[in-house]
Structures are given as structure tokens and as C-alpha cells.
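explain this.
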Amino acid sequence: MLEVKDLHVEVDGKEILKGVTLTIEPGEVHALMGPNGSGKSTLSYAIMGHPKYKITKGDILIDGNSILNLPVNERAKLGLFLGFQYPQEVGGVGISNFLRTSLINTGKSAPNVVEFHNFLKERMQSLGMPQEFLKRGLNVGFSGGEKKRSEILQLSVLKPKFAILDEPDSGTDIDGLKVIGNNVEEITNHGTGILLITHYSRILSNIKPDFVHILVDGKVVRSAGPELAAEIESHGYVEGAQ
């Protein structure tokens, strides 16, 4: 399991997270919601080990072992994955080479180049991604929604133990949300635990959460089942947190 215990995080000397505790089991989907500036993205970067985010108290554990002293690449080898809110373009690095190399570097076996290329085409088809994207650099020239599909493609190929998806609905249209939702459901059915960060409940009609948490001013102020998302949609974060 992935455990976040009483996590306090500072950025540039300012405390952003003020004691966050979460536990995510394999195959579970946890939706983390909250207003802008509440610390949602800070939590994702702290879990992944971004050096800018200083942990002053608490712990992060995978399968009972603390990962606080591990660099980002070692956390990835243990099965952590981050889907960025704003995925970057990486010119000169093709999707196929990037993913095959990533598989190898995280300690997993990768098929030969031809087999992997064909496998990747199948996964791209399930995501509605044009095959011509294989000829481009990673995310180069992609729209916002296409970049999000690219992130889900990476997730479906790497099959991590736990994935943090930071606003996968950002820049994504209704059809894109359905495609992303179907693929995330398939991934969770294979045992990947998901921390889904979002402002809005509309994506939760496509990705069904097991738990919903409200983060306000660096603290989880309420946790409940998927019905909590409907309360937030109707009443906002202030009333939903009560």
C-alpha cells in the first residue's frame, strides 16, 4: 500500500501541507479535491520526491517502507508514477523509445523493438491516438487533451503500483474523458492504486472513485465515499467540508 502519514511540507520556507494522512490500497481510486492553492499539486510532488518540496514532518511509505530518502528515479522503480498537470514537450525523444527505455530503467522486461512498437500501436488505438504521433517527439505539437492521453498511454504501458494523476481532465473534452476513464478503469482492474487530483466532479462520472477527500489549506478536512463529490458539486467546498 501507499501511505502518507501526517505529512508537513514547506516550499520556499512557507508551510503548504499541514498534516496530510492518506492510505491507498492496490486497485483503489482516491479522488483528492479542493480549491486552488489548497496543496493538491504540492502533495503529488512531495510524494514523487521533488527537491523543491521540503518535508518537515511525517512520512511516505510503500509497502511499509519509508521512501523519504529515495531520489525520484528510485521511487519510480518502486512503482510510483506521476501524470503531470501540464505535461512537457520533449523534442527528439520518440514515444516508443521513451516508453521502452522507461520499462527497462524501472526494472521491467521489455519486448524487442518490433513487438513493442506493435503493442504500442494497439494501446494508442484504445486511446484514440493517431499512429502518426509515433513519429513525433514526446508530446511535441500535442493539444492539451492529446497530452493527457499520452500520459494515460504511459501509465497503461508502465503499469505502476501507484499513480498520481494531477488534473487529467484539464484541457480534455467529453469524449476524451470517456476514453481516459475506460483506460484508467482497466489499469485499476490490474491492481494499480490511483490518487486522482481534480477541481471538478465531472471526471468522476468516468473514473469511479472509492474514496473522495477534500483538501483545504493544506489539510484533509473530510473524507467519504463517492457521494461526497456530488455534495461538492451542489454546495461547494465550504459546505462540502462540513
About this structure: The CA atoms of residues 10 and 134 lie 39 Å apart.
